Amino acid sequence: MRINEITLTESYVNVFSTEDKSKYAKQIWDMLQRSYEKIGGIHGKGFADIPDMIASNAMFKIGMRGGVPRMVVVYKDSGGRKRVAMGTDGSKEGKWFALNVLRDELLTQRSFGEFSGASFGATRKMIPDDVLVQLLVPAEEVAAKLGKEVSVGAGDDIRSIPNDPFTEFYYQRKIGSEYHTKLMYGDPAKVPFR
After folding, report:
1. 124 — phi, psi (to 5°)?
2. What DSSP element (H or E) covers 10?
3. How many CB atoms neighbour CB 141 within 10 A?
4. Domain 10-190 adopts which CATH fold?
5. Are 111 and 186 in contact (CB under 8 A)?
6. How far apart are CA 33 and CA 49, in angstroms?
7. Over the range 83-118, which residues count as b (16 or more CB within 10 Å of their CB) and which as e?
8. Per-residue pLDDT tens for 77-99?
9. Where are the domains of the chain?
10. Rounded distance between C-alpha atoms, residue 73 and residue 170, angstroms
11. Distance between CA atoms of residues 173 and 164, nearest Å
């Protein structure tokens, strides 16, 4: 290889068709199971098993390195492109892809979604709090935007800290049989699916 030649081995692949989603489904399923293991697995509609994941979710954004999936973001078409799950293979490359997607999704506002737990913590490390609060939806507005029942305020899964700049953004929503504290970003009315 000459010094001025560069081989790009990292890319994002957006997958929409059932056939294409099926090619990567096992690897994606394994990444999601690993990523959500600490909270008892992935909850919610569309993740009962691999066929359900393929059928219920409109798009997979896959971070690839050397042809191997390292990270995935799963989206539903919920009146717009909604991020519903994210996972990595645990590698440095997978984490790099995940951090870049989280940052870019917020700053470009090309999707909407909800943060909880680790994804919100990772986002706070990349985006200063004073910028992040401008990108979040106040909890009082979430039910109307999501079309789902929510309870304003943080639950037991969020530690309360003095002078928390995100207090007005915390809400709880039932996913499966459990309540989870979330924060919403983006506006479904402004984010067409494709």
Report:
1. -65, -25
2. strand 10-15
3. 14
4. Aminopeptidase (3.40.630)
5. yes
6. 11
7. bbbbbbbeeebbbbbbbebbeebbeeeebbbbbbee
8. 988 899 999 999 999 999 999 98
9. 10-190
10. 23
11. 20
